[in-house]
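Worked problem 6 (solution included).
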Amino acid sequence: MSSISSTTRGATAPLVSAASPTADEARLRAHDAGLLLLRVAVGLVMVGHGAQKLFGWFGGGGVSGTGAFFSSSGYPAGEFLAVVAGLSETLGGIGLALGLLTPLAAAAVAGTMVNALAVTWSGSFFAGKGGVEYELLLVAVAAALALTGPGRYALDRFLPVVREHRLRHGAAALLLAAVLAAVTLLVRS
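Solution. The predicted structure is:
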């Protein structure tokens, strides 16, 4: 699509009506719609997982059942870590779905899923054989969302610090998640 230009005092400015977006604007809308879909899907999945840990919903073990599992997996203070994991998944999922504090929300999900990778690792990749493909996919999606930002259809647009996503926000949040995930893994026996 070629654009029509107008020359005024030596400056060239495109003449585009509000009714006909440019190709770049259409690409941006598609990009933002795709990020919205991805954020909402992953966010709601994570909210569900958090609710399993915190409340025992959807067939989950609740804090006591999840805490017992964490203790049997070598983590000290299993119930405390069940609450931490449940809150990380629930609040991270809500943040992703809404596009609210997206770098931190994505980092919460990524950090929790790194620990899930360590617990579920059985030497196999595919989930059907006890593998980690699902957890690995969630880590990758969360990291990608932390680095790309939430897109324009997000509550972050109304927050001054994260209104315009910056790669360094996502990278710093992921670094924090990696350090916290590593510390949590180190206390595991």
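Discussion: The first helix runs from residue 23 to 55.
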